[in-house]
Amino acid sequence: MKSITSRDNPLYKELRHLATSSQARRKAERTLLDGVHLCEAYLQHGGVPQLCVVAESCLAHHEVDPLLARCAASGTQTICLPDVLYNALSQVEHGVGLMFIIATPNPALPKSVDQSSVVLDNLQDPGNLGSILRSAAAAGIKNIFCSSGTVFSWSPKVMRSGMGAHFLLNIYENVHLEELLKDVRIPVLATSSHAAETIYQVDLNQPVVWLFGHEGQGVAPELMDLATHNVTIPQRGEIESLNVAASAAICFFEQVRQSL
Amino acid sequence: MKSITSRDNPLYKELRHLATSSQARRKAERTLLDGVHLCEAYLQHGGVPQLCVVAESCLAHHEVDPLLARCAASGTQTICLPDVLYNALSQVEHGVGLMFIIATPNPALPKSVDQSSVVLDNLQDPGNLGSILRSAAAAGIKNIFCSSGTVFSWSPKVMRSGMGAHFLLNIYENVHLEELLKDVRIPVLATSSHAAETIYQVDLNQPVVWLFGHEGQGVAPELMDLATHNVTIPQRGEIESLNVAASAAICFFEQVRQSL
Question: Is this prediction's ipTM beyond 0.95?
Fold first, then answer.
């Protein structure tokens, strides 16, 4: 294990840059897994980190110790930092001080979309994206296609909110959604408060594509035109809208319910 | 309309205090509605603000103008601020510069809980609370009971995420949940990943209490003991958990579905 004690150490500067700049993460095609829970989930799903970073005070922590051993066994280098340097990298308050640097997964697009999938057009809020990824993973949906305008899936905020769902999913980013949807042969469902058909009336006992959009503006019109079904979630109140992550959860789990 | 141009003006200092300190808002029993959408929803549901604050550059904005007229008609004073002073009060970036100061609603507890309700034990995340309030309002559930450890409902963050749902609901805060639940005669449902009964097997065509807890620790054991049903949302993936706001949306809308 190597120790770094100076802020001016080139590797520390690089870590600091990765931790604080989303542009740096995109450019380096690397990201940070911040906290024991995410690191553990990553290893559990077969990931091999590029680098492990641990806060000095957490070296002997009972949750950290087995993860350090697994890193050592797979040849991953561990860097130990004084807490004050570590805390400048982490966004987790009062957490256990362990993080991984990993290569950002970037899977190749599948030849065709024939399994249930989620398509996200310009979704803006990291918490919403994380919640949607978590709900999709819990509902057994594996493929997520994001437009270039959608918030970056592998940002620390989205990963915290996703609680490890990322590692169960194939997340395709910067996808040209119009091109993708043109070739889809399974139903493409978009929710709309004006639709006549409810989600309960659609046969979800088959693979479908769920299409969700921007929190304020919804799905772009040219993509709405490619939906085969506009469906509504019937509501009982005076408010005619749901948070997009709440809508997505209701849709995904209506599909689970129909499959029971 | 009165103009304030100095940071040292006592009323401006008071506003600044309200805008930046959650403690100040609790103590004054007043809160801020930040942005045109929330202000409009408040008026629409019969609210009368204590004070209206407008940014100078938005005085003639087409969405602001009718709201200023309604404030004038109801005798609410409007204060105009230079943009630089206004922006120091607002958390909304690139928004239309209008806010209301209102008395924080603080309804008296009902004599009995006989309508469908939501009970929140130590919920921590403002975005989750706002999403739950929005989903409840959309599902036609009116009563929300929050423990003293639950995040404050009338904070600007929760209100932004609630999108006006607050004004459709009776939100009871600092409620002693054990005392409340002891006297409840309708089913009290708590979600649990270990339960044998699914939400689809429970008769939701009757008023029920939905009980949700802390994002990490769930519902406190002494409250779980007061639930009449432990129910599960069947899942299909390797992840055995959902975000609490996603769970709540699925539960509330399963109740709506059963009522169709």
Answer: no
